[in-house]
Design a protein that fits this description.
Elements (H helix, E strand, L loop, with lengths): L1 H4 L11 H15 L6 H12 L4 H26 L6 H19 L13 H21 L14 H14 L7 H24 L1
């Protein structure tokens, strides 16, 4: 028992900070030049969610489902090369994509300026879609290593959480559970990576 208690989270980590950061370079290289279309997807989702027609709200949910599916398809196969749990973690993104598809068949995503979560939601949306990628540049990771919405998991989960906070409807909170869960998983991963590098 004493041996088990001597382990730190960093001892259980299967990859180094460098390997994890290199993953995003490989991801961007694998989809190049497809990521130039991602800003259009992000803006389109937001515009549809702020539209007045019900079919626009449904299309916004479908677009967001596609973003989560894209992360599952492109990021997690690469992540599985350095993390044995990647396939289980990918299930979070598959489940969220399915939830969003169900939402697109029902109420969709409708942004409501009167929502109590409008301002925090807007901040998270901007962070996930704009500032998170820029943060990678300021951290000297270079353009090749930035994490992009609809390609990398963290900005996708953060932006989704922001959009959900900005929307109206009684069922919106179920759409926040998995993005929050992913943010918690990612926070623990980064904390462990930083601890292992110190």
């Amino acid at each position: 028992m004493e041996t088990w208690l001597s382990y730190r989270p960093a001892d259980l980590l299967m990859f180094s900070p460098e390997s994890y950061l290199r993953l995003f370079e490989r991801l961007n290289l694998a989809v190049w030049p497809g990521q130039v279309l991602l800003p259009a997807l992000a803006v389109g989702i937001v515009l549809l969610a702020t539209g007045r027609q019900h079919r626009a709200h449904r299309a916004a949910a479908a677009g967001l489902a596609a973003a989560w599916a894209l992360v599952t398809w492109r990021f997690f196969p690469l992540y599985a090369e350095i993390n044995l749990a990647a396939h289980w973690l990918a299930a979070v993104f598959v489940a969220q994509s399915l939830l969003l598809l169900l939402t697109s068949a029902d109420t969709g995503l409708r942004v409501d300026r009167r929502s109590a979560g409008w301002w925090p939601g807007l901040a998270l949306l901007l962070w996930g879609m704009v500032l998170h990628p820029l943060a990678g540049l300021f951290a000297h990771r270079g353009a090749a290593g930035v994490e992009l919405f609809a390609l990398a998991p963290d900005p996708t989960a953060i932006a989704t959480l922001g959009l959900v906070l900005m929307t109206a409807g009684p069922g919106r909170w179920r759409l926040a559970v998995l993005p929050v869960a992913w943010c918690a998983i990612s926070a623990v991963t980064w904390w462990t990576l930083l601890a292992s590098g110190s």
